[in-house]
Write a structure and sequence with these properties.
This protein has about 400 residues and is an alpha/beta fold. The protein is about 35% helix and about 20% strand. The protein has an 8-stranded mixed β-sheet, with helices on both faces. Strands 3, 4, 5, 6 and 7 form a 5-stranded antiparallel β-sheet that branches. Helix 6 packs across helix 7, helix 11 runs parallel beside helix 13 and helix 12 runs antiparallel to helix 13.
């Protein structure tokens, strides 16, 4: 049995007046996914446990069968694992996102304009985070470049217990109310302010402004945690897996779960990612003997965070045509039995431009037990009206790998 899980990040949504009261999933032309939905099980799953923040870290751990309430210490340690960065027992990893702040005056009065600094490229991001590391880093305090704006800070000097806020949750708002608070927050705030003083007039940022691009003029520190480990997926479900993802958060989850992680050139976590390359990586993994492939596509979530309705629709249609279609065509061609699970990790409604804790829709196809065709079925938020409900991601994962 082969297993294929496709996760269009944040694709779940709410009815949108501009789409005639439909959601993006209902409005998008999902030819391949909806054709399979008609002969699949459908339903809803609660991927985010009560009391857990609806981050992509918690949600993706959940749908892979891990209880985030029990195992999650923060998203940054997962990204550190993906990057191969060593962490000691005293170390705390933080996401050090390069963001765009706007305004004049003290740091707390500045507006969080863009959580990705205009989807800054890897080269520019590395130049700027290296400048921050040279100025503010040192023994026990190091900044590392990641993918695009997704940089990291690892330190044995900073505390992990303070409250921090993801910058994509507060776009358009003054920074002051969302700065780190609690034990050890002062030192982290100071680093953020110092990074702004360093970066706001950095030659590269002045050049970016001159080219009509947004400056990456501050490091926003959040998502902290200590090193974590997971039971290998092969031990849990008896499958050898491969993670196909652009972002280090997902690669980190994959590595901690004992999965291979594919390196797809041009996969960048944006609307303009290499969709075809992800499908090719999945097929290659199956051909090399992997039992399970998990494809994560960040684009719908990124579009939701910026309120880009048309981009979200385009990303869904590209995922359907360039990722889902080719991979399922390959699986069908092998003659081997296979199961397919399609679901978002969480909803990211365009209305609120951030993650929500609502249950998400899924379709689950079993080539050995296809259901009678039902023309009313589609992959959308209405899956719950006719399907079954799973109280947790681990419950659905256990059913998928049964």
């Amino acid at each position: 049995m082969k297993y294929f899980m496709l996760v269009p990040d944040g694709c779940g949504d709410r009815p949108i007046p501009a789409l005639g009261g439909r959601t993006p999933l209902e409005a998008a032309e999902l030819t391949h996914i909806n054709a399979l939905a008609k002969i699949s099980e459908t339903g809803l799953v609660q991927t985010i446990p009560a009391g857990v923040e609806p981050g992509s870290d918690a949600a993706n751990l959940s749908i892979l069968g891990y209880d985030p309430a029990a195992c999650l210490s923060g998203r940054a340690p997962l990204e550190a694992a993906a990057m191969g960065l060593p962490m000691g027992a005293a170390d705390v990893a933080f996401r050090a996102s390069l963001v765009t702040l706007e305004g004049d005056g003290p740091y707390e009065t500045l507006t969080v304009r863009d959580h990705s600094a205009g989807e800054i490229g890897d080269e520019d991001a590395e130049t700027l985070i290296r400048a921050v590391d040279n100025a503010l880093g040192g023994p026990g305090m190091r900044f590392y470049p990641g993918v695009s704006y997704r940089c990291l800070l690892i330190s044995d000097r900073l505390e992990s217990g303070c409250k921090t806020t993801p910058p994509h949750d507060i776009l358009g708002r003054p920074a002051g109310a969302y700065l780190p608070a609690g034990a050890g927050a002062g030192a982290i705030r100071a680093l953020m302010v110092q990074s702004y003083e360093l970066l706001k007039n950095h030659p590269l940022n002045l050049e970016r402004i001159g080219r009509g691009l947004r400056p990456a003029n501050s490091v926003w520190i959040w998502g902290q945690g200590r090193k974590m480990g997971l039971a290998p997926l092969e031990r849990k479900y008896g499958v050898r897996g491969c993670m196909v993802a652009a972002v280090n958060l997902l690669k980190g989850i994959g590595r901690c779960a004992g999965m291979d992680c594919a390196d797809v050139p041009g996969a960048n976590g944006t609307l303009h990612t290499n969709y075809q390359g992800k499908a090719e990586a999945a097929v290659k993994a199956f051909e090399q003997g992997r039992d399970f492939v998990f494809i994560h596509v960040e684009a719908p979530d990124e579009c939701s965070h910026t309120g880009d309705r048309e981009g979200k629709l385009a990303s869904l249609q590209r995922i359907d045509r360039k990722v889902f279609g080719p991979v399922t065509d390959y699986l069908k061609s092998t003659g081997e039995p296979y199961r397919v699970l399609v679901l978002p990790d969480h909803k990211t409604p365009l209305e609120i431009q951030t993650h929500s804790t609502e249950p998400v829709p899924f379709i689950l196809y079993d080539s050995e037990n296809p259901l009678p065709p039902d023309g009313a079925k589609a992959f959308s938020e209405t899956c719950g009206a006719r399907g079954r409900f799973f109280e947790s991601g681990p419950a659905l994962a256990a059913y998928f790998f049964r």
